[in-house]
Design goal:
Layout lengths: L1 E4 L8 H11 L10 E6 L4 E6 L5 E6 L10
The chain binds zinc ion (ZN).
The site of zinc ion has 7 residues, from loops.
C-alpha cells in the first residue's frame, strides 16, 4: 500500500497517521487501487481517501503541536 500525504501535513505526525491507516485499511479500495491519499481538511481533520477514485475511507482528527490540556 502506498500512502501519499498532503504537503501541508507535518512530517512529525505522518508516522502515526500511517500506523492508523495500516491498522484500519486492510483491503484495497473497491476500484482496485491500493494507493491512499491523506488530505488535510479544516479544523485539523484529515481525510483518508483513495488516491485514484477519491472514495473516503475514514476521517480523523489530528493533534496540533501546541499542548492543550483538555478538561
Ligand atoms: Zn478507489
Amino acid at each position: 500500500m502506498k500512502i501519499t500525504f498532503d504537503p501541508d501535513i507535518s512530517a512529525d505526525i505522518r508516522p502515526s497517521i500511517e500506523e492508523v491507516i495500516k491498522e484500519s485499511i486492510t483491503a484495497p479500495c473497491s476500484c482496485g487501487s491500493d494507493e491512499i491519499y491523506v488530505s488535510l481538511q479544516a479544523n485539523n481533520n484529515i481525510d483518508v481517501k483513495c488516491f485514484d477514485c477519491g472514495t473516503s475511507f475514514f476521517e480523523l482528527e489530528i493533534e496540533v503541536e501546541e499542548e492543550v490540556t483538555e478538561e
